[in-house]
Amino acid sequence: MSTHRYGPASLRGDWLRAGSGAVVSAAVLALVHDDLPVAAALAGTTALFALFAARVWMRGRTLIEMTEDGIAASSRGLAGTPRTGRARVAWRELRHMRLRYFSTKRDRSAGWMELSLKGGGGRLTLDSTVDGFHDIVRRAVAAAATNGLRLNAVTLRNIGALGIGREWPQALMPPRTGQE
To answer: What b/e sequence results for 13-24 when a residue is b if at least 16 CB atoms lie within 10 Å of its CB, and e otherwise?
Structure first.
């Protein structure tokens, strides 16, 4: 079994964005409280940054456990409470896998990946800022190959970009439809 987390370094940028966005929008809101439409828009913006901060906080409390049987993610409860919000996908029940890349630059030289897994009634989405992401993708590709899962071309290209599964992509290719 291996455990994986979103470490403090991977969350630092999100904390900075959430905090600075909430502070700036709240400060401007305090200055323009007389103009109702502008105040409503700024209040909404402040609320969105607060929700983003809550999401970052929850990611920091998430533990991903990978075993030979599957992968599970759970969130730590508040001080002394048990883990909550458990999501689990068994490797033998994996029926859908998607690996997407989101670029932050026009030349696609920077960005992050997002892995989505579904099967057996469970669903799990992780992004590449989780420690051990490469190992998780490698294990998911192996499960996809074992299960005869057909992956889309984007997922295969992203798997190749990680240097994973060079022996599997042909077996995982979607069938040709003649409409390409």
So the answer is: ebeeebeebbee
